Amino acid sequence: MRFDTGGIYHIYNRGNNKQTIFFTDKNYLFFLEKVKKFILPNCDMLAWCLMPNHFHFLIRANEISCQLIPGRPVDTSRLVESVRLTLSGYTKAINIQEKLIGNLFQQKTKSKLVGDSENNYSLTAFHYIHQNPVKAGLADRLEDWQYSSYSDYAGLRDGKLCDKDLAVDLLQLNLSTFSSDSYAVLSDEMLDKIF
Question: Is 3 among the domain residues?
């Protein structure tokens, strides 16, 4: 993964062989604690969603994100390292809990630049991330899935992971029409731009 300051990125990964990565409610919360500890200090979080076998983040890379960690044989940015620490720490705990061995996640976490000065698909990624549980049949309504940032933006919860003011500014969100805008149909052509 490579990040440039100011770029908006869709970051995602799933369970190795599409296996489950979150087995209990406590697992989701434990993963979010890892995100707070490692990822949040190294980027601006705009949206997130955790699904039983994968996750999505929409982030803006900042100066800290792109700083290289000194003394590494391969150039590694702070954000790349923070994602690695989150996934490896979570994997160790789940492997103990579930009596598993080996990789929990696919080897390479993906990141796609979805917003910069030339192209801006970040709003599509934002809505896609929140729509994911409904499209997967895990919830009837976006607000029914507790493991996403949708409820924070809809004013149903006071979550602290996302920089909502920054997201409103960067994505030009209208909070008064947010709920109805969130249910807009996203075309396959639009979705191709965020993966």
Answer: no
Task: Determine the residue type at 12.
Answer: Y
For residue 95, give the amino acid letter: N
CB 32 within 8 A of CB 23: no
CB 7 within 8 A of CB 115: yes
* Structure-token match 């006071």, residue found: 158
User: Under DSSP, is residue 87 helix (H, G, I), strand (E, B) or coil?
Assistant: helix
Chain centre distance of CA 156: 20
Within a domain: residue 99?
yes
pTM of full prediction above 0.70: yes
**Residue 160 is assigned to a structural domain of this protein:** yes
With respect to residue 2, please indicate whether it lies within any of the assigned structural domains: no
CATH number at residue 85: 3.30.70.1290
Number of domains in the chain: 1
pLDDT in tens, 54-102: 999 999 999 999 999 998 888 999 999 999 999 999 999 999 999 999 9
Backbone angles phi, psi at 116, to 5 degrees: -150, -170
Phi, psi of 103 (to 5 degrees): -75, 130
